[in-house]
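Retro notes - structure team

What went well: the batch runner handled both jobs without manual restarts.
What didn't: labels got mixed up in the shared folder, which is why I'm recording both outputs here explicitly, each with its sequence directly above its tokens.

Job 1
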Amino acid sequence: MNSTNSGIRVVVGMSGGVDSSVSAVLLKEQGYQVEGLFMKNWDEDDGTEYCTAMADLADARAVCEKIGIPLHTASFAAEYWDRVFEHFLEEYGAGRTPNPDILCNKEIKFRAFLDYAQTLGADYIATGHYARRRIKDASAELLKGLDPNKDQSYFLHAVSGDRIARTLFPVGEIEKPRVRAIAEAQGLITHDKKDSTGICFIGERKFSDFLRQYLPAQPGEIKTPEGEVIGRHQGLMYHTIGQRQGLGIGGLTKHGDAPWYVAEKDLDANVLIAVQGKEHPLLYSTSLTTSKVDWVAGAAPPMPLRCKAKTRYRQPDQPCLVETLPAGGFRVVFDEPQRAVTPGQSVVFYLDQVCLGGGVIDSRARADRTGSHPCVDHPADDHNTASEQGAAQ
């Protein structure tokens, strides 16, 4: 135990998962004064009972009791609705695909939670995210987690450096198998608990069923880029760029057996454009624009910037050039065309292990069907419905 940490109070965001459980264990072993806090970010009194908050709370309590730390509870459901969920609905209504985990981290876990923890007298908060930090003056740089298979810096890019400086990421320094081994050795109930994916407020429901509760479905036609009607969709918001399953296109003998993929969405005409072949040129983009970037350091680095970027979680870093636009915002030009770039999702920038920040994708420029010239595809596309593993477990 490190006695130099004995007077430092850390409040750990306890999700009921293995990562936050082990984070609390490690911090206690390092001599910190550790307390837990369970956040309720979604109101389950809506009759759906799909979220698992009560089961997660029970697991968090069991872990805190096992390791001998107190557990606080707090509801940020109102803040989540106002700052995250309403934006989520607005984006889907506008034909984009938002990533609620990114906004949740920015507005709830590293703002509402941090502010609340400070009222408890916390010097730091801690989460189970797979990320690291490097203190720099009064701020901090955000670094990738040590485990490349679990790195979650993509989801944390919108958190400012001053808030990163007040956060500890204990499991960011180790790999996931080691995390589970520690949990098992400690006899924690969460040691073999499955990692959560998707969005808590949707739970086990079908995504389309959930959206239908809040946004009206508008069925329309599915067409080829040449304008041939090949099917019907139940609503553009249910479909994503690069999607193959669920299109209901079949029996088109003259087109052969090659699978169909969503290439774009025409919001004005309420038309879904589909193409055949996973590598069809219309699925690829040469550049994108973003009107606003959250830089971890608080200010943009000198432009133009040679760096790497990713447009979705788990994508390998892609070499690119970032440049400012005359009217404001940034253009990102990739060295190689990128598949399924999705307005509404985020582009995140890296220099080696350092996450510089990122912004929401507004539009993309893609090659035409012959690849002879670029054409702008405005923000009517999407790729992944919801986010993947953006929450600390």
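Job 2
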Amino acid sequence: MTKTKTSAGASGESAPPLGDMSVDDFRRHGHEIVDWIGDYLARVEKYPVLAQVRPGELKAQLPPSAPAQGEKMEAILADVNRLVVPALTHWNHPAFFAYFSISASAPGIFGEMLAAAFNVNGMLWRTSPASTEMEEVTLSWLRELMGLSPEFDGIIYDTASVSTMHAIAAAREALDLRIREDGMSGRNELPLLRVYCSEQAHSSIEKAVIALGLGQRSLRKIPTDAEFRMEADALAEAIAEDRSAGVLPFCVVATVGTTSTTSIDPVPVIADICEQHKLWLHVDAAYAGSAAIVPEMRHILDGCARADSLVTNPHKWLFTPIDLSILYTRRMDVLRRAFSLVPEYLRTGEDETARNGMDYGIQLGRRFRSLKLWMVMRYFGHEGLAARIREHCRLARLFANWVEESPDWELLAPVPFSAVCFRACPPIEGETESARALRLDALNEQIMNAVNATGEAFLSHTRLNDMLTLRLAIGNIRTNETHVRRAWQLLNDAIQGS
């Protein structure tokens, strides 16, 4: 029997010879785990935000093979504390500022627990009426809060990468080129198909064209203006140029809240262009779409009513544990046409009267994801969710003001939401422009690494106008002004120590 590197001497019972853990043991361990989760969330600030381990460190502490005999739950949970927790980057930490935050709020955690306990596969209405209909109702609630038209119907996937891939697949299906039936390979009569996005768009769009067999050559990236928004005139010129070259444009991806800067593309003008050329308009609002539930911010989706599809991720800024992405579309029939494939063994008597989730994507298995969002929306309510998003935006503007008021720092992009792009730029004379650029890049990387090494905060970077740029993204449900002020102090300590 393989010896495992686990905690020894724990009390309790291991797994029975057959069947599952007893209900009594489940209750006992369940209470222990809920208590542990409560303690973890209460003391998460005591952990370093960024994992303080080296690659391979956890793997070296785990046995190379699974145990031949079952182990006691106490020993397993002890190893969660001893091995897993030290190797975590703590996304639930209120000073996690590196990426768009993924907050596991309490009702969302409960929703995940219940979904795991129910363990349903919502592929068909028959296999889970509850998950099918709750998904429809919950997405209708959110659509209304975001101010989207009832023309939009929604479907849940795991991430925006997958949602966007499905949207582009539907856009391709709308061309009626029989690609579903005949494919693209060996068809000399097919022109090069073109998708457009801005140079600031998320990398998932490029991955989508790769996965769909369109190839990277099919994606054309449009320049952005001084505020990192797609240049609509450049888009129109690119479409005209492609058409004259025999290329077939079919989809434009506009972004509301880009990953690097959270900029907003001019969707109304882009929608005009798409209507003129009969192109599918997909809007990536994965991060910022949630902000539209704040009444005074609803304008961020201006023009989106004319989009064919829009993606938003409640797991990014609506305090719902990962993963949960929503694709809204006004052309659900085309999405279904692209993916529906029903073998005899999956036919049911409700197929004509109820929605079957499997018809709208590549996955047959579908988790009960809507349950956690339903619980989050009910627990916090519209006003509570909006208040938290509004506060995050206030904190971002506060931080941006500190940056603008300091001679040692500069703001590098507008702050429409809760992410701030900035860099250190202490005044030093006597340098050439190129030497100063290299020095500032190195300085900012050094500052970021120094702040992250403290364990008190975690920031990330991007490149804007070929400058290494620091990013502070606020979105954790537990973040307050104290955490933002501490991050600012750490940054200034780092610049003084550099």
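One thing worth noting from job 2: Residues 6-11 have pLDDT under 50 and may be disordered.
We'll revisit the folder naming next retro.
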